[in-house]
């Protein structure tokens, strides 16, 4: 049989598949702590199974704690070309500390295939729980602001055109409740992340009757993964988490976009704190909403990481394939982006200065055209007709240049005889928002109720 051509000397790897292209240590070192805790739990279970002695277990545990201390203090020295990934690096170092004979027993009945998912699941669980805390803090800021600034009335927009008056707090809660749904989803996702794959071996299971329940408990998992082949193949827990993060960031980008618009001189509803904006290197008067633009921009990479991860899994055959190593980096990167973003959003919102006078000044009597129509509805006129009549009031105002709320009673009466003097009451922004008192609307009572609903979801 003819052998293939010899690789050139300057190629990335030689006859065997080694070297940089194969390595994951430069990113999976982030999982060092989980890797060590997983190894200790695994060794303890092996000691219970009688496959290593108690004394050997104690040496392994003590050695691994030393390895962890090295990572903790940045003293761990990665050996290039030897430490392929975090699992091999930790085991190599353990051997140097306690001797290869005992260290060589750590991996008994274990595979890196189960080890890497164990590390990932523990890491992700902890990160998602921290993110849950950040999200709750952000929502507390939303709730507090919504309560404090409930009297501010501003234009609500559709198509970015002035539509109807709303409370500023109603706007706050429109985004807040979307984030609260994200919170609910997150709590659901964590349940499926926090399952124990350890004791599944390379694919077929553990041959030494390992007590997997004991490992589950020690590592703080909520339960087991019940099929060893599935356990090493599965990255659904990462997919679901990154899909979650992509959607949260999509919500974040829309929230940020509103605030970017509201912070322009043309709107002036809000002013960002200096800590969350930057000046221009050229134009001294400028204050750019960089923080919000980055939140909007990072939603792109959050989506991209999710897409990378999903593509890496497409069409893989059963169980572990090295493609799955590509699931680690998108996870590490996107989860950090999401976590940072929520904390930045919190800072932006907590320090934002609102300008209720500007909000009010942006209101326009035409935004009450629906209220004029509703006025006649209350007098028994069908809405299709009232909509038309109100439209004629708008036209009259446009033609005469007289603001709609300043049309005389006679002018209104001439358009439709059913207008009475109390039509003047329809031209009041407060009255307009207060009329929207059905659950979910912009009246004060409805907004206060939303704050209660949101707060109850925070737990
Ligand atoms: N570094 C690998 C990963 O992240 C660990 C698993 C390696 N397993 C294997 N059979 N080569 O996926």
How would you sum up this structure, described in words?
InterPro entries: Arg_succ_lyase_C, Argininosuccinate_lyase, Fumarase/histidase_N, Fumarate_lyase_CS, Fumarate_lyase_fam, Fumarate_lyase_N, L-Aspartase-like. One of its GO terms (cellular component) is cytosol. GO terms for molecular function: argininosuccinate lyase activity. Keywords: Lyase. Residues 17-304 form the Fumarate lyase N-terminal domain. The protein is elongated, with a radius of gyration of 31 Å. Helix 8 (212-218) links the parallel strand 3 (195-196) and strand 4 (223-224). It has 18 helices and six strands. The model has no long low-confidence stretch (mean pLDDT 95). A two-stranded antiparallel sheet has the order 1-2. It has a two-stranded parallel ribbon with strand order 3-4. A two-stranded antiparallel sheet has the order 5-6. Helices cover 59% and strands 5% of the residues. Helix 11 packs antiparallel against helix 12 and helix 14 (369-377) crosses helix 15. The protein has three domains: 24-104, Fumarase C, Chain B, domain 1; 112-361, Fumarase C, Chain A, domain 2 (Up-down Bundle); 364-427, Fumarase/aspartase (C-terminal domain) (Ribonucleotide Reductase Protein R1, domain 1, Orthogonal Bundle). It has 459 residues and is mainly alpha-helical. It has helices at residues 25-28, 32-48, 54-72, 86-98, 100-103, 112-148, 168-193, 212-218, 228-233, 236-262, 290-313, 328-351, 356-361, 369-377, 383-400, 409-415, 429-435, 444-458; strands at 153-158, 161-167, 195-196, 223-224, 270-271, 353-354. Bound molecules: arginine (ARG). Arginine binds next to helix 6. Arginine binds at residues 24, 28, 85, 112-113, 116, 320, 322, 324-325, 328.
């Amino acid at each position: 049989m003819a052998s293939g051509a010899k690789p050139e000397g300057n190629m990335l790897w030689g006859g065997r598949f080694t070297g940089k292209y194969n390595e994951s240590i430069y990113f999976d070192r982030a999982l060092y702590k989980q890797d060590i805790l997983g190894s200790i739990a695994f060794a303890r279970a092996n000691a219970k199974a009688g496959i290593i002695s108690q004394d050997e277990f104690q040496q392994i545990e003590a050695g691994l704690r030393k390895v962890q201390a090295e990572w903790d203090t940045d003293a761990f020295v990665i050996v290039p070309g030897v430490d392929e990934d975090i699992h091999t690096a930790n085991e190599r170092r353990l051997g140097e500390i306690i001797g290869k004979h005992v260290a060589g027993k750590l991996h008994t009945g274990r595979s890196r295939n189960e080890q890497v998912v164990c590390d990932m699941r523990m890491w992700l669980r902890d990160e998602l729980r921290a993110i849950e805390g950040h999200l709750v803090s952000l929502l507390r800021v939303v709730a507090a602001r919504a309560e404090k600034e409930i009297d501010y009335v501003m234009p609500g927009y559709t198509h970015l055109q002035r539509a109807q008056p709303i409370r500023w707090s109603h706007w706050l809660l429109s985004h807040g409740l979307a984030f609260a749904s994200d919170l609910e989803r997150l709590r659901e996702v964590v349940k499926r992340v926090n399952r124990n794959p350890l004791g599944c071996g390379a694919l077929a299971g553990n041959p030494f009757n390992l007590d997997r329940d004991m490992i589950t408990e020690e590592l703080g998992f909520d339960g087991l993964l019940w099929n060893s082949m599935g356990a090493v193949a599965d990255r659904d827990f990462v997919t679901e988490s990154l899909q979650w993060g992509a959607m949260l960031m999509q919500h974040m980008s829309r929230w940020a976009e509103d605030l970017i618009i509201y912070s322009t001189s043309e709107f002036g509803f809000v002013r960002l704190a200096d800590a969350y904006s930057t000046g221009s290197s050229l134009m001294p008067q400028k204050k750019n909403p960089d923080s919000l633009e980055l939140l909007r921009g990072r939603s792109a990479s959050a989506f991209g990481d999710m897409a990378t991860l999903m593509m890496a899994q497409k069409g893989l055959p059963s169980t572990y394939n090295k493609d799955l190593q590509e699931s680690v980096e998108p996870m590490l990167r996107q989860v950090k982006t999401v976590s940072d973003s929520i904390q930045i959003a919190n800072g932006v919102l907590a320090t934002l200065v609102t300008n209720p006078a500007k909000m009010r000044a942006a209101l326009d009597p035409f935004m009450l055209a629906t209220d004029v129509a509703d006025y006649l509805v209350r007098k028994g006129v069908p809405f299709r007709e009232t909509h038309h009549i109100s439209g004629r009031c708008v036209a009259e105002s446009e033609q005469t240049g007289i603001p709609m709320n300043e049309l005389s009673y006679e002018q209104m009466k001439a358009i439709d005889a059913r207008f009475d003097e109390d039509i003047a009451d329809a031209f009041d922004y407060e009255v307009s928002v207060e009329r929207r008192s059905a659950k979910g609307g912009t009246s004060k009572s409805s907004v206060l109720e939303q704050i209660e609903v949101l707060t109850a979801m925070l737990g």
